[in-house]
Amino acid sequence: MTLPSQQLQMPSSSAAGIIAFLNEEDDNLKISALKKLYRVVDVHWAEICDSLPDIEALSEDTSFAGAELAAGLASKCFFHLQDYNDSLRLAFSAGPYFNIHEKCEYIDILLSKCIDEYTELRLQQEAEKEATEVLIDPRMESVIEQLFERCYRDGCYEQAMGIALDTRRIDKVQEVCTKSLEASHESILGYTFNLCQ
Length: 197
Prior knowledge:
Helix content is about 70%, strand content about 0%. The protein contains eleven helices and no strands.
């Protein structure tokens, strides 16, 4: 008898054998297939994209234990298709599979897209008399918070200040100044002054 882990060997030239397991009834087989596909999506994305509707359906199934993994895989597929809107939408549902601390083109481009969308929504909120009319996805807010933490960890206080000013986050302007001074990064005030001019 062949064990599921033995059946799911990834061929070097094709992902077709693994993709077939997405149609199985057993959720464990689906999750195992998604994990293997996630590891090779950057190489076999064109082939995996043929099953994108099925993968996206799994990501939207709240009863499926691998929904976040499916969202992460679908997000990367959309990224390779250069559909950054759908890629970011699915990344918000990907949980740990959208790790903003990872340094790669996928993360950099989606973070840039997220900042742009967040800035636009913040400006709309500022323009509206009642900010409740323009809602910001809490998952987007969470990514922005994580981005500030990443900037502090990496000592990128200028980047954090730029994001804080662009998004009209006065609370973050103060926080960036405080964090940079704690880290003896004294040039941030001059940098901020120059940006504001």
